[in-house]
Amino acid sequence: MPLVIQKFGGTSVADPERIREVADHVARTVRHGNDAVVVVSAMGKETDELIRLAGDVSHVRPGREMDMLITAGERKAMALLCMALHSLGVPADSFTGSQAGFITDTNHSNAKIVELRPDRLRKAIDAGRVPVIGGAQGVSTDHDVTFLGRGGSDTTAVAVCHALEGDACELYTDVPGVFTADPRLVPRARRMGAVSFDELLEMTATGCPKPAMRSVEYARRWGVKLHVRSAFTWEPGTWVLEEDPSMEQAIVSAVTHDTGEAKVTVSGVPDQPGIAARLFRELAAVGVNVDMIVQNVSDHGVTDISFTVPKDDLVQGTDVCQRLADEIGAVGVSSDSDIARVSIIGAGMKSNPGVAATMFEVLAGEGINIEMISTSAIRTSCVVREGQIEQAVQSLHSAFGLDTV
Ligand code: ASP
Ligand code: MG
Questions:
Q1: CB-based contacts of 234: which residues, under 8 Å, 6+ apart?
Q2: What is the pLDDT of residues 354-398, one digit of tens each?
Q3: What residue ranges of the chain have pLDDT lower than 70?
Q4: Which of 67, 125, 129 is nearest to 98 (CA)?
Q5: In a domain, 79, yes or no
Q6: Given 25, 41, 80, 127, which is the most exposed site by the fewest CB atoms within 10 A?
Q7: Structural domain count of the chain
Q8: What is the pLDDT of residue 244?
Q9: Phi/psi zone of residue 152: left (φ > 0), alpha (ψ -120 to 50 degrees), beta?
Q10: pLDDT value at position 405?
Q11: What pLDDT, in 10s, does the model give residues 236-278?
Q12: Could you tell me the distance, in angstroms and rounded to a whole number, from the CA of residue 210 to the centre of ligand 1?
């Protein structure tokens, strides 16, 4: 019998009516002759609320207790969904991450899966029952409850699909699939029928919010077939698949954007071996996650280094640079948080010259100045003024022929 993993995000199970609808869909899946395993997120905005609640109670928030608190959200959702399934005559059992066999490291709030022992899930399936698993959770090698981090339910679903050799992993969400651009910015964005793992990874790394990047990495590594789709229309969504080498590849498949980063520039840095190593080692040591890095050609033995960091890390990143500036003999440090990044992504870029040139021409035509550029084999990104991001995304989306007609 085909085995389908179905993951439902927070909005999909936000209230009793939604939970009953999800149960109805699961029941139908089973009645059509499939085995099903379900993964649920916490209801609606519950994870945010639990985090807020913790802040209201105390400014001391031990990781162990935070994880215990947050994972309660998924626990509530999974028990309620099981009840709804029972009322439809579908036998179902809820499982915490620990009961489902998720062993993780001890890194609270962002635990990594070290092993999955799905024996209990398999037994339940063999007994004709539907396991309903609380997403984004596990038990650590120290036997404590752990949380896999925001968006971790996607990873739970992919890991279960891999471990049980499922036929497909369906990620149900509040949008009909993966789009060629954010539909809130680009009303003429299209739902993609299919996208390759490589393209989706680049998209999630440059601003496409769903599915969680980590789950896409996991799925690519193990070849887990993903289907991103809507729990509101129940229509087929976007398939995420291995690239098909026999097919002609789109030059540009999507335009993404990210307004969550800021830019730091260290100017007048001596052009000597070891300076960049020193700077970025110190940034890494305090947990600042650096992204685009650009270094100029040196002029009279000095150069400028610019890089982007998440806005939340800006103060810390600037502090580190300022502290180091004297030691490494840099002239100054400046920062800018009014930036945004626009990226074009397409597997066909590898074999087609002039794609970057077209991107720059389109932006120039809109009077948009490019402040930084970075590329990968299948992506070109530009940093522009934040206030011009909408215009940048829209113009690129139509210039590369992605608009719906
Ligand atoms: N509920 C958690 C979150 O919103 C984890 C998840 O469901 O992915 O991030
Ligand atoms: Mg979620």
A1: 25
A2: 999 999 999 999 999 999 999 999 999 999 999 999 999 999 999
A3: 245-248
A4: 67
A5: yes
A6: 127
A7: 1
A8: 72
A9: alpha
A10: 79
A11: 999 999 887 666 678 999 999 999 999 999 999 999 899 999 9
A12: 12
The reply to whether 97 falls in a domain is yes
CB atoms within 10 A of CB 137: 29
- 81: tokens are 């969904």
Instruction: Tell me, yes or no, whether 162 lies in a domain.
Output: yes
Q: For atom 9 of ligand 1, which residue has the closest CA? A: 150
Token output for 233: 């229309």
Using alpha carbons only, what angle is made at residue 182 by residues 346 and 294, rounded to the nearest 5 degrees? 55
Tell me, using a 6 A CB cutoff, whether residue 97 lines ligand 1.
Answer: no
Q: State the CB neighbour count (10 A cutoff) for residue 288.
A: 23
Range of the domain at 87: 3-174
User: Using CA atoms, how far apart are residues 155 and 146, in angstroms rounded to an integer?
Assistant: 14
CA distance 227 to 145: 29
Structure-block tokens of residue 47: 């994870």
Query: Quick check: CB of 153 below 6 Å from ligand 1?
Result: yes
Is the entire prediction scored with pTM above 0.90?
Answer: yes
**What is the pLDDT, as a whole number, of residue 397?**
98
Question: What CATH number did the domain enclosing 45 receive?
Answer: 3.40.1160.10
Minimal-distance CA residue to ligand 1 atom 8: 151
User: Is residue 11 in contact with ligand 1, taking CB distance under 6 Å?
Assistant: no
Is 303 inside a domain boundary? no
Burial class of residue 92, CB neighbours in 10 A (0-12, 13-18, 19+): buried
For Cα atoms 350, 351, 352, give the angle at the middle one, nearest 5 degrees.
105
Q: Are the C-beta atoms of 55 and 24 separated by less than 8 Å? A: no
Ligand 1 pocket member 211 (CB < 6 A) = no
Whole-number pLDDT of residue 246? 66
What is d(CA 335, CA 328) in angstroms, rounded to the nearest whole number? Answer: 18
pLDDT at 163: 98
In angstroms, what is the span from residue 288 Cα to ligand 1's centroid?
A: 23
What is the C-alpha separation between 336 and 384, in angstroms, rounded? Answer: 11
Of residues 170, 147, 168, 166, the one with CA closest to residue 75: 147
Q: What's the 354 CA to ligand 2 centre distance in angstroms? A: 38
Measuring CA to CA, how many Å separate 12 from each of 44, 73, 93?
A: 8, 14, 19
